[in-house]
Design brief:
alpha/beta; 5-stranded parallel β-sheet; ATP-binding; ATP-binding protein; elongated; 272 residues; binds adenosine-5'-triphosphate; nucleotide-binding; ATP binding
């Protein structure tokens, strides 16, 4: 049956403004996903086809999942995040069924952003997949993307991978993942915005975030989140003793930065 998968349908509240940096990704998503959904008639008037997804790639922790969720929030759409474990099943034929069920759910909940994390694991080059009997799954994925048997109207497809070179080239054809965007690690300005977003609604002193980001070389968004988490935990412990919420200070952030290892450098070292 179509309703036995474990993925959750969310209604995200976050918007693009909750995502620091990522300007190019936001622009691509606006042009390819959001505008066609909001102005289908304009696209039709110029004979421009609607459809196809965006494949995002780049080091982990740089906001791919976050921007997918925020895309749904921007247009008040539903959101389904799909990991490989939601699909792969040891029984022959079950992975294909799981994938179909997920697409059906997204179609029923349209407008819906359907996000595939680690999509390379599903669309690995055919020779890899053939060994594990995965060709059927690739073909199923391709026909779901094409909307062969069911319309994908209002189903907005985003996917993320750390290793795009493992994707079967059939996924790159028009109407499928015909746009690829490289999600870079945040630059100085983006890091500041990310910290602002992460510190929003928390008790803080006047902070010099630029000084913090200067020390956060090669940090991903997720690394910055770890920094804020550490600062918050320490402050919470101090506050517990005093019995009132002490504001986060500059030194809390600086100390926390020193405790976190930057994660993006490693990715650039191996991704060749
Ligand atoms: P992975 O490849 O590991 O799935 P990802 O690129 O999908 O990584 P996210 O899961 O989106 O990364 O990011 C992890 C967390 O880091 C987010 O939930 C968020 O708290 C923080 N973060 C990352 N990038 C940003 C950003 N640009 N703005 C604000 N927060 C960010």
């Amino acid at each position: 049956p179509d309703d036995e998968d474990n993925t959750e349908v969310e209604k995200p509240k976050i918007k693009f403004s909750d995502v620091g940096g990522m300007h190019q990704v936001k622009e691509e998503i606006s042009l390819k996903i959001i505008h066609p959904l909001l102005h289908p008639d304009l696209y039709k008037a110029y004979g421009k086809k609607i459809g196809g997804g965006i494949l995002m790639y780049g080091p982990p922790g740089c906001g791919k999942t976050l921007i997918a969720r925020a895309t749904a929030g921007e247009i008040n759409a539903s959101f389904i995040s799909v990991g490989i474990n939601d699909i792969l099943d040891m029984w022959i034929g079950n992975s294909e069924k799981n994938l179909h069920a997920i697409f059906q759910k997204a179609r029923a909940k349209a407008p819906c952003v359907l996000f595939f994390d680690e999509v390379d694991a599903l669309g690995a080059s055919r020779s890899d997949m053939r060994k594990s009997g995965g060709r059927h799954l690739i073909n199923q994925f391709l026909s779901e993307l094409d909307g062969v048997d069911y319309s994908n109207e209002g189903v907005l497809i985003l996917a993320a991978t750390n290793t795009p070179w493992n994707m079967d080239s059939a996924f790159r054809r028009p109407g499928r993942f015909d746009r690829i965007v490289f999600v870079t690690p945040p630059d100085q300005a983006a890091k500041e915005t990310i910290l602002e977003v992460l510190l929003k609604d928390k008790p803080i002193q006047k902070l010099n975030l630029e000084a913090v980001t200067k020390k956060a070389k090669d940090f991903s968004g997720a690394d910055l989140r770890a920094v804020v988490d550490i600062a918050v935990e320490n402050k919470l412990r101090e506050s517990m003793k005093k019995g009132l919420p002490l504001p986060i200070e500059q030194s809390d952030l600086i100390n926390a930065v020193e405790k976190v290892n930057p994660s993006t450098k490693e990715w650039f070292g191996t991704a060749r």
